[in-house]
Design goal:
Chain lengths: ~375, ~45
């Protein structure tokens, strides 16, 4: 099979999966989207009657409408990267034009392939309130939740559930600081923590009634099949509310199969969201109830296998790409293990860095006041 | 420019909840910089 993987140069997941697929006799093609426009050119041709063609070439890539692909793993295509010496007055519009060109390409590339995930569905599927609503409708338990910037609603929620409320941002919230980075993790909040109303209403947030935890699950959904890892988050004092705070020290192991009603709920939810792959986060309560928190449509999974080599995420994910919908979640008889190909994948990334445009980590939220392009010059400390 | 009380307090609730991590803390916590991380790397654009 031929598998197209739009992504960025430093993506260890993409490179490891590519190495594993090659070992299984398949042909992965990595497309580093940041190479456009400085190292790649692209054309889209449209003729009367709607006949169309496209081409992308440069930096070891030459693709067009006749390039057949069985699968598109829409991994993490990054935005086109413009050069630093472009006049700042032109940057915004050039970026927008390049972004629009890429958006058009995704409409034309490999329309008959198995897309992981269908690109039209990704954006809407990642809206957290929508996920919670649809999960509830699919029969999965969800936490009592308030998404709000209304000070009265927020105070009322915190008062009604005093001592039991956690705060989560709508999306990853991080700022560059002089010393490093500031990040928002799931945090316990009470009425006494709230700022003045005119500050509180400036940024909508997610407030949830805390769910008692026995442990947590990270579940890979793979075309109807599952791979489950049990996260022993309650055994580490820093990980109780948010296991990301003790990510490197988290105890984990292969999880048990999901209860049938939970598996069924996940399948219904993914159908409603239009997704074929995702990483679910569940809390399992002391009573054994599986409470849905969220599903990341392109979540990371190799860290599970890196922590416990018996959680065969790499091989199972490759088998999913190969088998598509209806996949049963099982690894191959002779699985490719991440530990066996890790160094080879990292060496290939180093080679790629010499040829391709590196991913630029650009934080819009910046306390230092040094953001490029006039983006988000947030109040500085002087 | 002297920091004023109003500037000091005009941070969102979200920002006030953020935890300050040094570059070393971040690397230790998430393996940022091309290695495996749980969410794909902080400082995402």
């Amino acid at each position: 099979m031929r598998i197209l993987i739009p992504t960025y140069v430093e993506d260890i997941h993409a490179r490891a999966v590519a190495v594993a697929l090659e070992k299984k006799g398949h042909e992965p093609v990595l497309w580093f989207t940041a190479d456009f426009p400085t190292r790649q050119t692209s054309s889209i041709r449209i003729a009367p009657g709607g006949e169309s063609g496209w081409r992308v070439s440069g930096s070891q890539l030459d693709l067009d409408e006749d390039s057949p692909f069985d699968v598109v793993w829409f991994r993490r295509p990054t935005r086109p990267e413009l050069p630093d010496d472009l006049h700042p007055g032109d940057r915004y519009l050039a970026q927008r034009a390049c972004d629009s060109h890429h958006s058009a390409l995704w409409e034309l590339v490999a329309p008959d392939a198995f897309w992981v995930n269908p690109h039209h569905a990704r954006g809407r599927a990642s809206i957290k309130p929508r996920q919670l609503v649809e999960a509830g409708r699919a029969g999965l338990p969800v936490p009592l939740t308030l998404c709000s910037n209304d000070p009265d609603d927020i105070r009322r929620f915190l008062t009604e559930h005093e001592g039991e409320v956690v705060y989560k941002p709508f999306s990853s919230a991080q700022w560059r600081t002089e010393e490093g980075t500031a990040l928002v993790f799931t945090t316990s909040v009470g009425v006494e923590d709230l700022p003045e109303d005119d500050i509180l209403r400036l940024s909508s947030g997610i407030f949830q009634r805390r769910v008692p935890k026995a442990y947590e699950l990270r579940v890979l959904y793979l075309g109807g099949g599952f791979l489950t890892a049990k996260l022993r988050s309650q055994e580490h004092p820093d990980a109780e509310l948010d296991w990301k705070l003790a990510f490197r020290e988290l105890g984990l192991e292969p999880g048990d199969p999901l209860p049938p009603e939970v598996a069924d709920g996940c399948r219904k939810l993914m159908n409603r969201l239009g997704l074929v792959f995702g990483c679910f986060d569940f809390v399992v309560t002391p009573e054994g109830e599986h409470v849905f928190l969220e599903v990341n449509e392109m979540g990371q999974f190799l860290w599970l296998e890196e922590t416990d080599p018996e959680v065969l995420t790499l091989d199972v994910f490759c088998e999913f790409l190969i088998h598509g919908n209806g996949f049963d979640g099982r690894p191959a008889d002779r699985p490719v293990r991440f530990g066996e190909i890790r160094e080879e994948a990292l060496a290939q990334i180093e080679e790629d860095r010499r040829v391709h445009v590196a991913r630029i980590f650009r934080q819009a939220a910046d306390d230092t006041g040094r953001s490029r392009d006039g983006v988000a010059r947030i109040a500085t400390p002087v | 420019m002297k920091k004023t009380h109003r500037q000091e307090t005009r941070r969102t609730f979200e920002r006030r909840l953020a935890r300050e991590l040094s570059a070393e803390d971040l690397e230790k916590a998430f393996g940022a910089g091309g290695t495996i991380s749980c969410c794909g790397g902080c400082a995402d654009d």
